[in-house]
Amino acid sequence: MIYTMNGMTTHLNLQADAPGTFRGLSSHFSGDGFSAMHFDVLAVPAERFAAWIEATRNTGPTLDPGSYAALARQSMNTRPFTFRAADPDLFQQIVTQKLPPGPGPRTGRPHPSVSPRTED
Amino acid sequence: MLGKLSWQAIPFDQPIPLIAGSVVIVFVLAVISWIVVKGHAPYLWREWITSVDHKRIGGMYVLLGLAMLVRGFIDAIMMRSQQALAFHSAGYLPPEHYNQIFSAHGTIMIFFAAMPLMIGLMNFVVPLQLGIRDVAFPTLNAVGFWLTATGALLVNLSLVIGEFARTGWLPYPPLSELTYSPGVGVDYYLWALEISGVGTLLAGINLITTVLKLHAPGMTYMRMPMFCWTTLVSSLLIVAAFPILTATLTMLMLDRYFGFHFFTNEAGGNMMMFVNLIWAWGHPEVYILIMPAFGIFSEVVSTFSGKPLFGYRSMVAAVMVICILSFMVWLHHFFTMGAGADVNAVFGITSMIIAVPTGVKVFNWLFTMYGGRIVYATPLLWAIGFMVTFVIGGMTGVLLAVPPADFVLHNSLFLVAHFHNVIIGGVLFGAFAGYTYWFPKAFGFRLHEGWGKAAFWLTFVGFYVVFVPLYAAGLAGMTRRLQHYEVAMWRPWVLIAAFGIVIMACAAACQVAQLAVSIRQRGQLRDETGDPWNGRSLEWATPSPPPAFNFAVLPNITGEEAYWGMKQRALQQARLSEEPAYADVEMPRNSPTGFVCAFFATIMGFALIWHIWWMVGLAALGAYATFVVFAWRDVEEYIIPAETVARIDRANRSARSTALARRQAAP
């Protein structure tokens, strides 16, 4: 694992030289939805990958500052989805903290009491 | 008027904390009313609550530690049972509750179980071993204890009023910042630790001064028992490291209360700094805990092998080296932060170097036992169990100190198994060894051996049944703090671990039974001579329990193992040394300062958590006034007349002459 932190760039290396399904997971506790934060990595032959790229390019929303803000909101058990394209400047804007971080479970003044129950 | 506090804070819709809280409240009320009805309240106030006697304070520390150990263990049972059930299912604890449980488990076990157990034993034993009458600052000692109790109370209060932190036992930002944890949980954590941290710091200052400045005549540094040395190291680490914790938590507080940006996501905050600082305290902290345990094992191994400690000087060198090295390894807690290969390599190597002085100690204990007349009493069983378990834990630690391996194992159950391996196998076994070993000194009767051995074996076996599967699950990729999981491969390991916790629960029941049976049979288990184990250091020269003044006349020390030397002389000459000339003894007067101060600190902490500002002001004023009243006291000491001292010491001497005659008559 490697920590993911504000203002930090990390190079992630993926070596997919044989087909298969691999489990990926978040390993640093981050709140109530932590246990559901895992995913499957599908390593597929080159032609299937090319077909997947082709299909993905034609469906779904674009990743830009607007959809990033929605993505950065706290959520749990979201189904995986893809973006058709990404704003080329977006990564730089995130890393240099030009875009604000995701809001917490509530906006505005924190609510008075919080006993063991999920907010929002 | 009451800040954030309202009826919503009581979890009426949450049966588990509500029932648990009610049971605790009913139990506490029952105990208090029993005390009042039976008329024990004045005695308790006079002899314990206001006491500044290091033996009483040590006893109360240990009692607090044991009570919190039970609370932390109940959390552990809930976590293991939740994980056993939560395969493809939500289990019985929702995340918001489960996350509080593991956070509370870690916080309570480290700060309110392990620390009080260790500080309590140091407090009780060190002045006796040094041949002195009390610690350097007796009232400060009481303040330190009661502030620790305040912290424990606040953490337990969060069970029924509000919530506890849901961030893990170290509240890493940004999760612990106000934006992502708007509740009072993190505030409970912060104030409980700030207040008890002051208490711990006071205890550390007190013990350093005691060990460095107060000795019986002739008790030079190189004649001090090993436990005094490890106490010194542990206290030095407390004084050097706890201010870092206090400062770090203060920064987080400023973020949360005043909108500062030390560790926030935005406005230049840097969460890396929190992780860095908290481990600059956190790594020395594990040595603060383990050092006294090493001292206990040194005493126990030497006593029950009937031999002086092997390589005393190398042991002193080893603990001092660990004292320094422990500040040079903290980065191994976050190799995965991305500091780069060179930095990681340096800290990987320093972490591995710590294994060298630790290895020296293990060999010293083994050579102490080699050729000794070994008595397999319960304390020695804990010590042997420790040596086996701790070596395994140490080796998995060396493995984790390899940065590439750590990238795979960081935050996995392998790590969880590793630190439980060293903390249970080291600190907890050490606490139980010390508790069984010094119990007769504190209360005048031994603990039942049969129940003690049963507790040891069940803990020992139960430990392996819980944590070896967790090593395996961690290697298979299971991370810590999972509330539910879907990977079938992890399931068997989790189930075995859940079975193991049943064994551990039986062990805990044996400990309770041991105490109950021992109290009932205290007549048979009575320690008449004050030296039940054929001990070697000065605490065994006093009667059991020792009088308030410990030593009628300060002993004159002529070598290592002071009491063993006296005993050998008495055996050779077939009589005790000459009766000394008794004089009046001055002892510090009891003072409610500690208790009253902690009372106000509790109110202040609670008010700060709930933003009840007027109450904060009143409580701060109260705590300050308490100190002023104490500072203006006229009478600091009271006199124990020479006749009383003589009477108590003559009883001790006559018990010892009888024992001497008995030993001489034996073949």
User: pLDDT under 50 segments of chain A (min length 5)?
Assistant: 107-120
Number of helices of chain B: 20
Structural class of chain A: alpha+beta
* Dominant shape of chain A: globular
Strand content of chain A: 5-15%
Largest sheet properties of chain B: 2 strands, antiparallel
- Helicity level of chain B, as a percent range? 55-70%
Q: Tell me which oligomeric state these chains represent.
A: heterodimer
3D structure, described in words:
The complex is a heterodimer of chains A (120) and B (667). With 120 residues, chain A is of the alpha+beta class. Chain A is 22% helix and 13% strand. The longest helix of chain A is centred in the middle third of the chain and has 12 residues, at 46-57. Mean pLDDT of chain A is 81; it is low at 107-120. Chain B is an all-alpha fold. In chain B, helix 8 packs across helix 14 (413-443) and helix 15 (449-475) packs antiparallel against helix 16. Chain B has 20 helices and 2 strands. Chain B has a two-stranded antiparallel ribbon. The model of chain B has no long low-confidence stretch (mean pLDDT 90). In chain B, 67% of the residues lie in helices and 1% in strands. Chains A and B meet through loops of A and helix 4 of B.
Could you write a compact summary of the structure shown?
The complex is a heterodimer of chains A (120) and B (667). Chain A is of the alpha+beta class.
SSE blueprint:
The complex is a heterodimer of chains A (120) and B (667).
Chain A: E1 20-25, E2 38-43, H1 46-57, E3 62-63, H2 65-72, E4 85-86, H3 90-95
Parallel strand pairs in A: 3-4
Antiparallel strand pairs in A: 1-2
Chain B: H1 15-37, H2 41-49, H3 54-85, H4 95-130, H5 138-157, H6 185-213, H7 226-258, H8 271-305, H9 312-325, H10 341-353, H11 355-369, H12 378-400, H13 403-409, H14 413-443, H15 449-475, H16 491-520, H17 562-573, E1 585-588, H18 593-609, H19 613-631, E2 637-640, H20 642-665
Antiparallel strand pairs in B: 1-2
Helix pairs in contact in B: 3-4, 3-5, 3-16, 4-5, 4-6, 4-8, 4-14, 5-6, 5-18, 6-7, 6-18, 7-8, 7-9, 8-11, 8-12, 8-14, 9-11, 12-14, 12-15, 14-15, 15-16, 18-19
